What does this fold into?
Amino acid sequence: MAEPLIRTTHLIKEYRMGDNIVHALDGVSLDIAAGEFVAVMGPSGSGKSTFMNLTGCLEAPTSGDYVLAGDNVARLQGDELAAIRNRRIGFVFQQFNLLPRTSAQENVELPLLYAGTPKPERRARALKRLEQVGLGARTDHHPAQLSGGQQQRVTIARALVNDPVLILADEPTGALDSRTSLEVMALLQELNRSGITIVVVTHEHDVANFAQRIVQFRDGKVVVDHTNQAVDARTLLHAPAPAPTSAAPAAVPAPAPTSIPDGAAA
It folds into this structure.
């Protein structure tokens, strides 16, 4: 049996707040297989965002193990964590985090720039990913010239440009309207069908229902972990809009006949 892409074992993360210690994660053991689409849910303070930060190598755990693609990264720090993030993980954020004075293409190139990739290769790979997310005609547009959905597509292209094994999406539809949210989830499902592992952190059940598996956190622990019959976002996108219903206008009653008193006629 193949090793999981993600394996956390007794993962603990503590933060000191004055004289108090906050147990943000309390002994989380979880496997995520390569190619899964997982939604991570939970109320504010449940530990779901801390779990994303640790699996995204944005910070290190207090104790426990985290194995990503066969490498135990739990004890890595600083530049070592940054190298893992840059090579293996793509991030999609609710607020896009795009550089405002930089074109879509240049925003997508950023991870390659940090990795020291030569300019011609950076350009070619960025253009390929923008084409993949449907923005091939807007590569020179700045974020202010793009809709919210288009900006989120740029962030997805940026997440893909280093060919990651894992995409972490933190509330990816939180700043979008309903239709655009569907388009973004359809794109994430398409990427998942191509073999990329997707982990979405969300508080919205409608978003979680696009995943194949739902994991719920509370008080720093996993309290629910179950498979899910994922809704196909493409099907919803192409479903015909319901016909508007209009009530028949109410009949106007005929006026009552007016009787003319005898002798009143001219």
